């Protein structure tokens, strides 16, 4: 899935416009997931903001595409299409290693308390990878990730790509209630749940970061294209930063691994 | 949006909340890149007419009443307008015409029963309901906890109080109720306009024939996120894709071959193949279908579909 980083002359393989309704075009730039896609996607997003101005309704960037939702009262499909054509004709990627679309600086760091009480699948990940607990934490926190897309819930960032040894399928039975801040992995991706919600990803820890805050400028801590690093912290530091230490509740028969080790 | 008069007079009090009554303005835009859904009225057509009947500007917040059951008491004298579904509305036990404007005096009770035609009624008030916008909109999205009269995405609850933005105007200055042809028949099975696109070419020939030539039934798993349909099993060469942005009305087909039409509170991205997207007015009409209703699809090119949508907008939008 994920290509090699640092490949030379990385360019969109298929700039293609697809009808997505009476007021939207789908711009398809790539046909596979790659961290190197993102500087192109964020550049396209910014260029569309400038090119459409008042006629822009919304933009939805994702792994390989940008959905451009324009005001049908102001633009016909043909007019919108020619604006996109002009943007695509001389599109340059944002600087590699640069900012995501939120443009707030360097790599964003999320402090994580990796613990069985808040990350019941930490043990499963050890078992499946054959790594020690420390090595799993090191592998997860030692890697820099890219935000590919936000979705599922406000502020939920799909980040990748995970090192091979941390790849784990989603849970067979999703949890009805995943606590806010839960840091999780599924397949080649990792994320953190901004608020309590159902969820099927494997929980390995919890962050004290406020991922989505309606009173903050920009609302979401993470933006598409951001580079993100997880930083392992101990329980004291996690609590001092306002982290919630209550263990993941396992109401059904599940109840594996979620007891005993939290203190 | 004017905030003058905030904290002023309460005009309506909720006596009984019913199953689902939500404040909806035009929707929440510009934040889908953050995973925040669009929201807004499931039936844009009915919502637009309710506001229009009071001379409200495009985007004013109205109440979307699903299935009825709501009872409101007036705290002062006011004009109101009703459009969309016929949910057996009564004013002090006298029937209120759907698609009409009417006056309410202090102490009078506006009550909704159950669906006679359609599923969602829209109640507009002078200037729109007053609430603090959250992420640029007062549209209420329960799942996300955003918007609404309480700012937390909540549906109306007993004893909630509602405030208006504006004053009632003289009815001679106000638009006429819609002509008959603008009032949908919510009982007759609709032919919904679908603009083909996305992965339509990856569906097999038989499936495409069936999409447009067979009847589909509205499943009981239907809400503001989407409407599931049951009918022939559709086959697509693609079963799952890299997730991408999803527009209003997108018709996605998961591996079980039964389409889901995605509505206002849909997730922002998704990875199932799609046949294309319903037009906004087709979404409006679908949002009035109760489980068990039959529908049909018809294909429409994007230019013709947009021209039709612009004719609709021309009645309501000025700027």
Automatic annotation (TrEMBL), chain A:
Top-level taxon in the UniProt lineage: Bacteria
Residue span, Carboxyltransferase domain: 15-222
Region feature Disordered, mapped onto this chain: 241-263
GO MF terms held by the record: ATP binding; hydrolase activity
Keyword set, alphabetical order: ATP-binding, Hydrolase, Nucleotide-binding
PANTHER family, A to Z: 5-OXOPROLINASE SUBUNIT B
Name of this chain's protein: Sensor histidine kinase inhibitor, KipI family
Record organism: Modicisalibacter ilicicola DSM 19980
TrEMBL record, chain B:
Stored InterPro entries: CT_A_B, Cyclophilin-like_dom_sf, PxpC
UniProt KW tRNA processing keyword: no
Record's keyword terms, sorted: ATP-binding, Hydrolase, Nucleotide-binding
Organism for this UniProt entry: Modicisalibacter ilicicola DSM 19980
SMART domains in the cross-refs: AHS2
Pfam families: CT_A_B (PF02626)
Region (Disordered): 146-187
Taxonomy, superkingdom: Bacteria
GO molecular function: ATP binding; hydrolase activity
Protein name, UniProt field: Biotin-dependent carboxylase uncharacterized domain-containing protein
The Carboxyltransferase domain, residue ranges: 33-312
């Amino acid at each position: 899935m994920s290509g090699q980083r640092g490949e030379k002359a990385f360019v969109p393989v298929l700039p293609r416009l697809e009808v997505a309704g009476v007021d939207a075009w789908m711009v398809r730039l790539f046909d596979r997931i790659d961290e190197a896609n993102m500087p192109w996607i964020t550049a396209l997003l910014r260029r569309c903001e400038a090119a459409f101005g008042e006629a822009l309704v919304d933009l939805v960037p994702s792994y390989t595409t940008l959905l451009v939702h324009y005001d049908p009262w102001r633009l016909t499909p043909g007019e919108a299409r020619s604006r996109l054509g002009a943007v695509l004709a001389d599109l340059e990627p944002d600087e590699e290693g640069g900012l995501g679309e939120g443009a707030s600086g360097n790599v964003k760091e999320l402090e994580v308390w990796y613990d069985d009480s808040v990350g019941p699948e930490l043990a499963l990940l050890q078992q499946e990878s054959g790594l020690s607990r420390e090595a799993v934490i090191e592998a997860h926190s030692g890697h820099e990730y890219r935000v590919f897309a936000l979705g599922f819930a406000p502020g939920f960032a799909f980040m990748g790509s995970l090192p091979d040894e941390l790849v784990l399928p989603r849970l067979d039975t999703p949890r009805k209630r995943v606590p806010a801040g839960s840091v999780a992995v599924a397949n080649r991706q990792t994320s953190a749940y901004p608020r309590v919600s159902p969820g099927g990803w494997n929980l390995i820890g919890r962050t004290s970061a406020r991922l989505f805050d309606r009173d903050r400028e920009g609302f979401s801590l993470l933006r598409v294209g951001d580079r993100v690093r997880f930083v392992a912290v101990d329980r004291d530091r996690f609590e001092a930063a306002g982290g919630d230490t209550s263990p993941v509740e396992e109401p059904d028969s599940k109840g594996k691994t979620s007891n005993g080790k939290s203190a | 949006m004017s905030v003058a008069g905030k904290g002023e007079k309460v005009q309506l009090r909720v006596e009984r909340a019913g199953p689902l009554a939500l404040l909806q303005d035009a929707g929440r835009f510009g934040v889908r890149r953050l995973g925040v859904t669009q929201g807004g009225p499931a039936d844009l057509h009915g919502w637009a007419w309710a506001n229009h009947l009071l001379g409200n500007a495009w985007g004013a917040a109205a109440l979307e009443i699903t299935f009825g059951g709501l009872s409101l008491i007036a705290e002062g004298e006011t004009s109101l307008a009703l459009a969309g579904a016929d949910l057996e509305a009564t004013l002090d036990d006298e029937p209120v015409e759907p698609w009409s404007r009417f006056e309410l005096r202090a102490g009078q009770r506006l009550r909704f029963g159950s669906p006679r035609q359609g599923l969602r009624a829209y109640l507009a008030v002078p200037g729109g309901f007053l609430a603090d916008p959250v992420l640029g909109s007062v549209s209420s999205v329960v799942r996300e906890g955003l918007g609404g009269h309480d700012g937390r995405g909540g549906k109306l609850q007993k004893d909630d109080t509602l405030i208006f933005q504006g004053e009632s105007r003289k009815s001679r200055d106000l638009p006429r109720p819609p002509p008959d042809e603008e009032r949908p028949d919510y009982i007759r099975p609709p032919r919904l306009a679908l603009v083909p696109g996305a992965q339509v070419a990856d569906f097999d020939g038989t499936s495409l024939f069936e999409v447009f030539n067979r009847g589909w039934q509205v499943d009981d798993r239907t809400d503001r996120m989407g409407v599931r349909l049951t009918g022939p099993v559709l086959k697509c060469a693609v079963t799952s894709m890299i997730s991408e942005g999803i527009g209003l009305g997108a018709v996605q087909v998961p591996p079980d071959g039964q389409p889901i039409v995605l509505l206002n509170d849909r997730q922002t991205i998704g990875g199932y193949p799609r046949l294309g997207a319903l037009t906004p007015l087709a979404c409006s009409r679908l949002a009035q279908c109760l489980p068990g209703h039959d529908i049909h699809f018809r294909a429409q090119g994007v230019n013709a579909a947009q021209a039709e949508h612009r004719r609709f907008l021309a009645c309501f939008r000025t700027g």
